[in-house]
């Protein structure tokens, strides 16, 4: 899929950090768990940015922080407005521009409400349209995702996983958003159903001028749908760039490992030396001041264990946080 010609950033993320509660240490002391640490990237209008990394690396926390669903530090702008500077009432109004599609539609859809009630809910909360206008909007969106009005009186448990995800997508579109976070939106589905949902998302992007942040641990899905790829490891970005650039050359050893373990290798760089990750993922609070990937990296140097690397940029705007490129 070719890169889309775009002119401006719809989403800008600057020095974003997210911490959770108090994690208990072995000696009984407590400290905050840092899930996301000083993350910077942007999402151009009309594009799809794929955010990829292993489970637990902070991907979902980034998506939720951008939408203002969890506390964070740093600067986040969506559709020209600073999320971090908004009051709760301002944020409620601004959510007209941004929505989220979750991994498990059965848990995100209230099983006690009919499909029509679920889709009407956000329109009522935002006081948008008359009842007839709301009904017309719901009917049109249900048809866009492959259903007819007969399903509107039914309940979430009466549908398959793929059908529920289509309903979740229709519900996300009720407020005419410009930006949607897809948080592992196809990971719980069969491969054939995944393809259908991805094609639907691509079609809807064109029809509604949508911009996506697509979160996944599945590199094959990220490769298929993204224009731009951001690689996350233990809460920090280790590499980012256009899909074309990263597919041609993976610079960070972690990105190389991700590509080498993909079910369908597609580049010459996916060689046997990356077929196995060196060790298990370390705990975030044990990595020290050096590179977080040092304990697993096949190219580790002394400097890597002492100092976290700077971010280096190539001529084609590919960015990598690794001392190999100093």
Structure description:
With 326 residues, the protein is α/β, with parallel strands linked by helices. The protein folds into two domains: 9-233, 3-Layer(aba) Sandwich (Rossmann fold); 251-326, no CATH class. The protein contains eleven helices and twelve strands. The protein has helices at 59-66, 88-94, 105-108, 115-125, 131-144, 161-172, 191-208, 219-225, 243-248, 253-260, 302-306, and strands at residues 9-24, 30-44, 48-52, 73-78, 81-82, 98-101, 179-183, 211-216, 228-233, 236-242, 311-313, 319-321. An eight-stranded mixed sheet has the order 6-7-8-3-9-10-12-11, sandwiched between helices. The protein has a four-stranded antiparallel sheet with strand order 2-1-4-5, with helices on one face. The longest helix is centred in the middle third of the chain and has 18 residues, at 191-208.
Structure, briefly:
The chain is of the alpha/beta class. The chain contains eleven helices and twelve strands. It folds into two domains: 9-233, Rossmann fold (3-Layer(aba) Sandwich); 251-326, no CATH class.
- Put simply, the count of helices is 11
What fraction of residues sit in β-strands?
Answer: 15-25%
Overall average pLDDT = 87
Helical residues, percent: 25-40%
Distance from first to last alpha carbon? 32 Å
Please trace the helix and strand order, writing H or E for each element: EEEHEEHEHHHHEHEHEEHHHEE
Number of E strands: 12
User: Compute the gyration radius: what is it?
Assistant: 21 Å
Proper CATH architecture of the largest domain: 3-Layer(aba) Sandwich
Features:
326 residues; Rossmann fold; four-stranded antiparallel β-sheet; 11 helices; 12 strands; disordered N terminus
């Amino acid at each position: 899929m070719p890169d889309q010609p775009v002119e401006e950033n719809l989403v800008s993320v600057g020095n974003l950090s997210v911490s959770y509660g108090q994690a208990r240490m072995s000696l009984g002391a407590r400290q905050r768990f840092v899930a996301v640490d000083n993350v910077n990237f942007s999402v151009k209008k009309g594009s799809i940015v794929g955010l990829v990394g292993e489970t637990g690396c902070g991907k979902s926390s980034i998506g939720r922080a951008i939408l203002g669903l969890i506390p964070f530090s740093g600067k986040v702008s969506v559709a020209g407005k600073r999320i971090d500077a908004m009051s709760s009432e301002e944020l409620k109004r601004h959510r007209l521009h941004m929505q989220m599609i979750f991994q498990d539609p059965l848990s995100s859809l209230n099983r006690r409400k009919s499909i029509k009630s679920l889709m009407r809910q956000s329109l009522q909360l935002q006081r948008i349209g008359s009842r007839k206008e709301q009904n017309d909007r719901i009917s049109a969106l249900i048809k866009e995702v492959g259903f007819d009005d007969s399903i509107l009186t039914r309940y979430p448990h009466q549908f398959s996983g793929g059908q529920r995800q289509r309903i979740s997508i229709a519900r996300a579109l009720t407020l005419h958003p410009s930006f949607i976070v897809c948080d592992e939106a196809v990971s719980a589905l069969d491969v054939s159903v995944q393809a259908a949902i991805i094609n639907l998302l691509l079609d809807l992007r064109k029809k509604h001028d949508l911009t996506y942040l697509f979160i996944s641990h599945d590199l094959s899905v990220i490769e298929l749908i993204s224009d731009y790829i951001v690689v996350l490891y233990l809460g920090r970005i280790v590499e980012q760039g256009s899909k074309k650039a990263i597919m041609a050359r993976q610079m960070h050893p972690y990105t190389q490992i991700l590509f080498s373990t993909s079910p369908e290798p597609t580049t010459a760089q996916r060689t046997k030396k990356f077929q196995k990750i060196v060790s298990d993922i370390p705990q975030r609070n044990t990595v020290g001041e050096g590179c977080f990937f040092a304990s697993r990296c096949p190219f580790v140097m002394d400097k890597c264990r002492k100092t976290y690397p700077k971010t280096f940029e190539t001529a084609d705007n590919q960015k990598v946080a690794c001392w190999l490129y100093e």
